[in-house]
């Protein structure tokens, strides 16, 4: 096993990054407002000028689908687009993309046959979008409503804006449909585990992993096959606070953190959430040959009407499942707690 020299410094860094993140990602709610149409919304709002540009590029027949709109649309702000357009080499390059791609993007932010106000959203939902065959995941979280595409997790920063008979939710990230982008545009900005972890905003986990050679190799690899349960930024920083209180430091802390990170990893197979829900035990750990053996670490799996849970010494709920890395040979499931298996707890004397 490679260097375990991450930790102490990383954990300190993590605390500050976590605190900064928490502060910047919780915008105050604004009052809901009402517009006669999508065109009316994007024309009247100064912070939606890039969405307005996209609509202006669309042919009449296409925009007709948004007349008397009674569905739901996620509208990214200009700030959200500004982050996204870097991938294309800036705003001007983005605006020069074929209109067909801009149409895909717009459809991917739309569901035509469902008017979903935030009060209607419960639990985790896989929602068909207007782009045939492409789904988004919509989840109610303690931080409000989150919308996940394979490459981004957007937060609804202003919910329930009436648009004609339908509803718009203003979001802080552009939702990126995976296949149209890669297949037709040779576009793979999140080819590695580390890219996805950063895109999801789990900077503290990234920092902790990047402190070891072994961790950094996993973050950077584009060839990995496996599964990672990724704790939310909030869960990880809260956990780090608890660890600090124990005053454990030096090699003992390095060993513990490495083992605990291992409890989030399966390095043998990309388990999608459906497969996990169908097994009793999910094997984890750095040591692939130990999976399924008496020495192996694992979590019990519970799947019921409220969701999918992993249970060990600590337990977590899967809050955003099935985020693929690259072409999906590696899958990430965002979980709401740091996971410690019973075997790790025993080894650490917890
Ligand atoms: C929404 O619009 C579609 C197509 O225009 C229509 O078929 C459907 O009945 C409408 N639903 C509601 C609730 O108005
Ligand atoms: C950790 O150290 C602090 C300061 O030295 C002390 O107050 C606290 O009781 C210690 N905690 C544990 C769990 O030993
Ligand atoms: C990995 O697990 C196998 C099977 O339990 C064991 O024989 C081997 O020693 C372990 N390797 C390491 C590096 O711990
Ligand atoms: C589903 O399982 C979880 C974890 O064991 C539990 O907390 C939750 O209450 C269960 N939900 C139902 C509806 O049984």
Automatic annotation (TrEMBL):
Gene3D superfamilies: FAS1 domain
Domain FAS1 as annotated: residue spans: 35-175
The organism's place on the tree of life at top rank: Eukaryota
Keyword Plastid annotated: no
InterPro entries: Adhesion/Biosynth-related, FAS1_dom_sf, FAS1_domain
UniProtKB keywords: Signal
Signal peptide range in chain numbering: 1-22
Pfam families: Fasciclin
SMART domains registered for this protein in UniProt: FAS1
Coiled-coil ranges per UniProt: none
The name this protein goes by in its record: FAS1 domain-containing protein
């Amino acid at each position: 096993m490679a260097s375990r020299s991450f930790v102490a410094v990383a954990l300190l860094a993590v605390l500050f990054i976590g605190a900064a993140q928490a502060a910047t990602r919780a915008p105050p709610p604004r009052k809901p407002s009402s517009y006669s149409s999508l065109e009316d919304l994007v024309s009247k709002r100064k912070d939606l000028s890039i969405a307005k540009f996209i609509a202006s590029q669309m042919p009449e027949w296409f925009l007709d689908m948004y007349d008397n709109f009674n569905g739901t649309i996620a509208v990214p702000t200009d700030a959200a687009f500004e982050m996204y357009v870097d991938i294309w080499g800036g705003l001007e390059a983005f605006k020069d993309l074929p209109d067909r791609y801009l149409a895909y993007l717009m459809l991917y932010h739309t569901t035509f046959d469902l008017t979903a106000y935030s009060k209607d959203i419960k639990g985790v939902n896989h929602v068909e979008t207007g782009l045939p065959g492409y789904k988004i995941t919509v989840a109610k979280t303690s931080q409000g409503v989150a919308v996940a595409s394979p490459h981004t997790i957007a937060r609804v920063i202003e919910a329930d804006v009436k648009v004609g008979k339908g509803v718009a939710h203003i979001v802080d990230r552009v939702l990126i449909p995976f296949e149209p982008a890669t297949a037709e545009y040779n576009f793979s900005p999140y080819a590695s585990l580390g890219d996805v972890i950063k895109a999801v905003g789990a900077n503290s986990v990234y920092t902790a992993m990047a402190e070891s050679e072994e961790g950094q190799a996993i973050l950077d690899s584009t060839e990995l096959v496996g599964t990672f349960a990724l704790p939310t930024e909030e869960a990880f920083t809260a956990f780090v606070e608890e660890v600090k209180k124990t005053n454990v430091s030096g090699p003992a802390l390095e060993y513990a953190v490495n083992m605990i990170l291992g409890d989030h990893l399966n390095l043998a197979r990309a388990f999608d959430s459906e497969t996990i829900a169908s097994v009793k035990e999910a094997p984890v750990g750095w040591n692939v040959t130990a999976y399924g053996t008496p020495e192996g670490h694992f979590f019990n799996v519970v799947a019921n009407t409220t969701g999918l849970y992993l249970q060990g010494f600590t337990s977590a709920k899967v809050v955003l499942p099935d985020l693929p890395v690259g072409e999906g040979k590696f899958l990430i499931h965002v979980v709401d707690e740091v996971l410690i298996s019973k075997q790790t707890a025993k080894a650490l004397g917890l």
